[in-house]
């Protein structure tokens, strides 16, 4: 079945550092790919998405490119802020009719001032 | 757009009791999903509704679990004879049926269940 593997955390960075969180997937079809973020005490929020190969999703300075050849969707940000501290989840949607999401286990990011 | 709401936010119950959670999706979203998230893990799919029809159920959804969406608007998830292993965050999400947008799911804040 479909699966998502994320870089294990926790990740601790200083403010203004470069961020990469690795994500690879296994899927039988052509899924859409997502990054969701969960801030402390809050629900999951969609951060960005990409629906086909070579698409780049971007939002709030974060970017991720759908790489079919390497089955990857790594999350990057050039300069993190303290307010980016959260748990980040990579996910794919089943290309069937239900479109349910399959999530990775999440990566906890802490940004220090 | 008021977002997806869930009630209650927290529920503590004793083993063997029944519990029911409610989800109100974003209005006009006809697709509704339930997920379960345990500590340190990503959410896992439980079940999916399109309008009032329950179209898919995960193997995780044992016969003690039942979900309904009677009028195609709000949904309820009931767990009968709760077990300690049911302790988790139960998340609801909704999405529109539009061809370009139905992949995008919007999540509620979740209901945290603790079974003592």
Q: What value does the average pLDDT of chain B take?
A: 92
Low-confidence stretches of chain A: none
Strand content of chain B: over 45%
- Total number of β-strand segments of chain A? 12
In terms of structural class, how would the helical and strand content of chain B be classed? mainly beta
Notes on the protein architecture:
The complex is a heterodimer of chains A (113) and B (116). Chain A is mostly beta strands and 113 residues long. In chain A, 0% of the residues lie in helices and 50% in strands. Chain A contains no helices and 12 strands. In chain A, the strands form 3 sheets. In chain A, strands 2, 5, 6, 10, 11 and 12 form a 6-stranded mixed beta sheet that branches. Chain A has a 4-stranded antiparallel beta sheet with strand order 3-9-8-7, with no helix packed on it. The termini of chain A are far apart. Chain B has 116 residues and is mainly beta. Helix content of chain B is 0%, strand content 48%. Chain B starts with a strand and ends with a strand. The model of chain B has no long low-confidence stretch (mean pLDDT 92). The interface between A and B is medium-sized, with 24 and 25 residues.
């Amino acid at each position: 079945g479909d699966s998502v593997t994320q870089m294990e955390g926790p990740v601790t960075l200083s403010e203004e550092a470069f961020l990469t969180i690795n994500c690879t997937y296994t899927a039988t079809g052509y899924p859409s790919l997502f990054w969701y973020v969960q801030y402390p005490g809050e629900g999951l929020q969609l951060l960005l998405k990409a629906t086909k190969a070579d698409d780049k999703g971007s939002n709030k300075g974060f970017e991720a490119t759908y790489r079919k050849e390497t089955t990857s969707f790594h999350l990057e940000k050039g300069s993190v802020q303290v307010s980016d501290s959260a748990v980040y989840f990579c996910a794919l949607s089943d290309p069937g009719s239900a479109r349910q999401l399959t999530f990775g286990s999440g990566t906890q990011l802490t940004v220090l001032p | 757009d008021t977002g997806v709401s869930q009630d209650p936010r927290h529920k503590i119950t004793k083993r063997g009791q029944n519990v029911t959670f409610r989800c109100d999706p974003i209005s006009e979203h006809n697709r509704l999903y339930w997920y379960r998230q345990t500590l340190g893990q990503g959410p896992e799919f439980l079940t999916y509704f399109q309008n009032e029809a329950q179209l898919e159920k995960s193997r995780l959804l044992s016969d003690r679990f039942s979900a309904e969406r009677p009028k195609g608007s709000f949904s309820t998830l009931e767990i009968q004879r709760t077990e300690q292993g049911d302790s988790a965050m139960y998340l609801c999400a909704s999405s529109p049926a539009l061809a370009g947008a139905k992949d995008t799911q919007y999540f509620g804040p979740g209901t945290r269940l603790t079974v003592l």
